[in-house]
Specification:
Layout (H helix, E strand, L loop, with lengths): L4 E6 L2 E6 H68 L2
Antiparallel strand pairs: 1-2
Keywords: Membrane, Transmembrane, Transmembrane helix
């Protein structure tokens, strides 16, 4: 492994930092960025899934209400038909 020394100036003091630490910091920074991007992607996926579930539930409830309305109309028509036949 080749170790080089870089110089960085802080407050007019010459501070030397081994480049391996800089490389390690870069690695941690990349891991953190990857984890952050992955977390954001997972969060967005979950939000989209929840939104889809709400939309599907809404559509199912609307369809159920439509079926119930149709059944109620058919029941009312059937009751009128029976009552009309009873008049004969």
């Amino acid at each position: 492994m080749h170790l080089t020394v870089t110089s960085t100036f802080y407050d007019d003091h010459n501070v030397t930092t081994p480049s391996i630490l800089t490389d390690e910091y870069s690695l941690y920074k990349e891991i953190l960025q990857f984890a952050t991007h992955t977390g954001v992607i997972i969060l967005l996926s979950v939000l989209i899934a929840v939104a889809c579930i709400f939309v599907l539930c809404g559509l199912l409830m609307k369809a159920e209400a439509h079926v119930n309305t149709s059944v109620n109309r058919n029941d009312a028509w059937l009751q009128r038909s029976i009552m009309d036949e009873g008049d004969f």
